[in-house]
Amino acid sequence: MKAYRTRNQLKTEVKTLLKGNWSKAIILFLIPTLEFWFTNVYKVIKDNFSVKYNNLTVTLDQILKASTSYGLVSAILGLIFILITLSATFRGLDWLEDPNLEFSPLKSNFTYFRSPAWSELIMLDVISYVFLLFWTILLIVPGVIKALAYSQTYFIYKDLNDHGLSKDYRLTDYITKSRQLMVGNKWRYFVLQLSFLGWWVLGLITLGIGFIWIYPYYKLTMANFYKDLKENNGAILA
After folding, report:
1. Please, which pLDDT band fits residue 53 given cuts at 50, 70 and 90?
2. Angle at 129 between CA 124 and CA 135, to 5 degrees
């Protein structure tokens, strides 16, 4: 019988790891936290800018050039931040598995910029996005369910690559294994996500300052959820 940890147990383990190590965790997730913060602040700035923009006199050519340039830069930065966030999260999983692990928090943000890991992770992100877009177009609820089912894809990629098994799998196989791993666990994961709702509200109330502590706690808890899944479903990752 599978003995999954409760939400409180998963969070308590993370809190135990963070006790006396908050500075290490904050530095590890500092860049992803800043990206998360700026992304949310940008939405407000964008809305205000769009109102003022309509009062300016500009040519169609200027609009096209600005949008094309911004779109390209935004896409490139988005891909870079995906790799940084995944690198930090993967190091967080390593840390959970070995609480005495010695590592450089800042350098760990760039672990997966080496080839071919960076290109495979980006392609995995694109494939997952296309699949989720397809399901969401059909109906919102199936899209949400599939998002939960695909949630462990990157962790599975990391584990299988760490064990030298990547050559035996296609990128879509990681998504398939995530679906298998999440059978009977999607509701647990969804409720775990909801349990952070109060923390997100607190982060907003503090104008984002609270995210410096909240984001590492959240990311490590999600990594611990995967660790729990792996320990109870080893055959799927064999």
Report:
1. very low
2. 130
Residues 6+ apart with CB under 8 A from 223: 89, 92, 93, 96, 155
Q: Is this prediction's pTM over 0.90?
A: no
Task: Write the DSSP string, 127-180.
Answer: HHHHHHHHHHHH-HHHHHHHHHHTTTHHHHHHHHHHTT-GGG--HHHHHHHHHH
| Six token digits for residue 174 | 């990681």
Residue 55 three-state SS = coil
Check: CB of residue 109 under 8 Å from CB of residue 28. yes
Band of the pLDDT at 76, cuts 50, 70, 90?
A: confident
CA distances (Å), 65 to each of 78, 203, 220, in order?
20, 36, 41
> What are 158's two structure tokens?
């990391």
- Residue 81, number of CB atoms within 10 A of its CB: 18
Residue type, 130: V
Residues of 41-74 as b/e, b for ≥16 C-beta within 10 angstroms?
eeeeeeeeeeeeeeeeeeeeeeeeeeeeeeeeee
